[in-house]
Every structure is written in structure tokens, then in C-alpha cells.
Prior knowledge:
By secondary structure, this protein is α/β, with parallel strands linked by helices. Strands 1, 2, 3, 4, 5, 6, 13, 14, 15, 16, 17 and 18 form a twelve-stranded mixed β-sheet that branches. The protein has a four-stranded mixed β-sheet with strand order 19-21-22-20. It is globular. The mean pLDDT is 95.
Amino acid sequence: MAHPSDIEIAQSAAPRPIAEVAGELGIGPGHLEPYGRYKAKVGLGVLDDGPAPDGKLILVTAMTPTPAGEGKTTTTVGFADALSRLGRRPVVALREPSLGPVFGVKGGAAGGGYAQVVPMEDINLHFTGDLHAVGAANNLLAAMLDNHIHQGNALGVDARSITWRRCVDMNDRQLRSVVDGLGGCANGTPREDGFDITVASEVMAVLCLAGSPADLRERLARVVVAYDRAGAPVTAGDLKAAGAMAALLKDALSPNLVQTLEGTPALVHGGPFANIAHGCNSVTATRMALSLGDYAVTEAGFGADLGAEKFLDIKCRMAGLVPDAVVVVATVRALKHHGGVRREDLGAEDLDALKKGLPNLLRHVENITEVYGLPCAVAVNQFPTDTPAELRLVEDRCRELDVSVARSEVWAKGGEGGLALAEEVVRLAGQQSDFTFSYPDWLSIEEKLHTIATRIYRADGIDLTPQAKEQAKTLEELGFGGLPVCVAKTQYSFSDDPALLGAPTGFRVTVRNLKVSAGAGFIVALTGDVMTMPGLPKAPAAERIDVDASGRINGLF
């Protein structure tokens, strides 16, 4: 008998009314704005009226991912359900899915099997409209910039220096590079332009890092959109756009409350990608989870070299957060992939390939424990094709190196399948840590990039293109040198080359472009061939998503 699909499992669940979930957290009606019966916005006043954020913070990250997926969100959700079964009071804090990967490769990003957040169809599609608000605010700023130029350009904007791009929440390679403003003087000024995916917009990063409505507006005002003819930055504040942008984002600033299949509260808020943005859910949702529960379980996108590095070096630096423990998700399938096995052969036992792939996982663990000084556990997300010998090999190798490891069967068993992992992480979270960032603030932009590349990726060094060298010099002259750096890099390798699997050495990382996200508060470094607008695959997941005659959605997975 075939196992039910993720959406079939989710649609057969009987979630509790969201007011009931909120009530158990101590959130009264005055702080709750329902969006239907099973989702709601939680007002920021909860942070003012509730207890100080003093729960334990657990970060879930992963080894270098593969196109097959490693189940990081599934593990996060099931682990939180397991904590509930142990008598703890966890609150999950996740990112919102983007329509791009939902219709592209993933087909859904709300967990899987019996470890999901619901209502999964809503979460995976329009949800409460946050991503649409981000897109609207981004594109309002773009429209006001071009209108300013059309109406006389009082600020002296150099049209060749415009850095602000439009965005859309869809994988659409056709929009990466465009020419707009065609059709005569009445239709604007012709220029080269382009689109990013909404989750790569700086507005998304601002939303996720802002601590209050006032902070949101101040950050938006600092956003640099272009430079004038003298080389000085032109900001959203200069264009008088920050107030209207903040108005569009007012509701989006409040976290969204939903629940897992087992009724564990979950705050799903913000959605920057980790390969092209900073990859973490909102600071507001994380703080709220720490205030409402005794464990806040959050995740960072892709592998620990991307999402976890940015969570620790950017989010924790800005918000004053310190994780109590880190979980690194691994799968036998992914380890064999990094050992050289083709995707179609991953279901066959291959101990030799597994041994070759294990250094990838162990390098991520070493970064967490030795670079950042945090307690770490490996969660082996178990698949039906994993053999006992393969699972034993992973566990034995971890234990030989004194690495905590536990199997996770949450996809098939929900919280029950994560009890061993939960018990181990509770133990680790009670230990003292010696948390440090991977680099100090006072390093130059180039030195920060070199430090990340050599300490986290284990590269021999970095190479800045002539353009990037000039950009670094200019940004430091403008006073942005003290900001942390956000590296945009392929998710499929420690290097900037997706073909270099495992734990590569002897490579260098090429930085081809640098730009300041002054509102977010970091420098973005584009490496390799990474793009801020993904494309759809040959057979996109959208082809399998449909609505039946009764209005029931199917095909999400």
C-alpha cells in the first residue's frame, strides 16, 4: 500500500482552532488577529506584555544539501513535537515558503510526512500575504526612483549607478536582465534593469531584522538604491519612500501563528533564501518564541556553511542571540551523493561511498563546535532505503569523533520518531558554551570574506574581481566597512563551484560583485555563478499542482 502524500496527511488532520493554540501560550484576543480558523497574526505587543525572552534557543541546520533534499524543516518540526512529548513547551520559528521553489523544485516547504506545519496549503501558497507585501514595498521604491528621474531628477541620480531592482515571487529567468522605460518620453527613461526573486529583496531582510515599527521605518529609509553623479548614496529616505513602504509592511511585521500536526505552536515568519540572502526567519518571531516557550526551535536555510553561518554571524550579532545547541541534519542518501553516487543509485547500499561522503558532515559539525564554540548534535534523518549497516556506519563514525548523534524518524512517526534526538539536545542545551563569531567587526570587507572562506568553507583564499575590489574600496570610504558580510553562494558545495562535492580543499572563492544592504545592515557578496533570480526546472512542480472539482488542492508535497 502506498504511503499517503504530505498533502493527504495534512488534509486528514484535525487542527485545533488557532485561538485555542494562542490561549495556551498566554496570547489573549487583544494580541491575536485571526486569518480564518487555523492561522493568525500575533501582535508585537506580546513582546511588551509577556515575559522576557528566556527560553533555550535551538538552531537546526544541515550538511551540504543535494537536489534530493535532506528534510531539515521536517526534522525541525518533528523535533519540536518530540520536545512536547517530553513535557517541554517548545515553540517552532520557521521561514515562510516562497512560491518560486514551491512551483519549481520543492512543491512545498512546510515539512513532510507526519512532521508538518498546517494548514500546509495556505502556508505554501499565499499564507497571510507577507511576501506580497514585501514585493509591493520593493516595487513601490523602484517606481518612486524611476518617477523621480522622470520628473526632473532633483537628486542628480546617475542612472548608470542604480542598484535597486524590481522583484517577483516566482522563479522567472526571463526577468533576470531586462530593458525597461521603452515607448517614448511619457513612459520613463530607457535603461537596463532586472528582477530578483522577492525573498532576495533587501526589503525581506529588513522585515526579518527589524525589531519594531519604528526600527522598520528607519531601516527602510537607509536602503541605498543608487548613487548620484558625485558618487554619494541615494536612499529610500531621500526619495521620501520609507513611510509608504512601512505602511505596506505594517501587518507583515507581525509573526504568523500556526501549529504542527501534533498541535505544537509554530511561528512562521519571513523567508529570505540562504544561498542569495541571509536565510533566517524574523528576529521578532524568534524572540517571541523564546518568550512564549521554554524552547525556541528555529532553522536556517541550506547547509551550515550558508544558513547557520549567517544566523550566527549576522542575526545573532544584530539581535544579541546565542543558541544553546545546534542540530545538524544529515541523511545517508546525501552522504552517499557527496561520496560520488548518482541520484538514481542512492537507494542501493554503498558503504564505500558513505565513508567518502562523511567528511562533508563532519566539517560542518567541526565548524559549529570549533569555530563557533557551540554544542552540536547530528540528526540522521532516516529514509526507508537506509540499511542497518549504513546507519551504524554513520553513528559509529560520529561517536569515534565524540560527536553526539541520534536517528530521526519524524517523517514516518511524528514526534515519537524524534524522542532520542530531543533527549540528546536537551542534555546538550544544558551545557555551557563558548560562543564566538567567525570574524570580528573591525576587519575590512575583504578580510571578513577571506575569514569566512578559509575558516568555514576551508578555501585557500578569495579572489576579488577588479570590479569587486573597487566596490569594496568605495563601500569602506562611504563608512560601510564595519558591517557584517552576507555571502551569496551555491548551496551544493562548500566552494563556489556546485560540482565540488564532499569536503573539498585546494580551491579559492571568486567574489564578482559587492553591494551594500544598508537597511538590513550587511554587505552582500556575490560569488561564482549564483543568481538572485532562480529559474524553473525542465519539469517544474507546478505541473503536478491542481484543484479538484470540490476546490481541494492536490499535488503539493
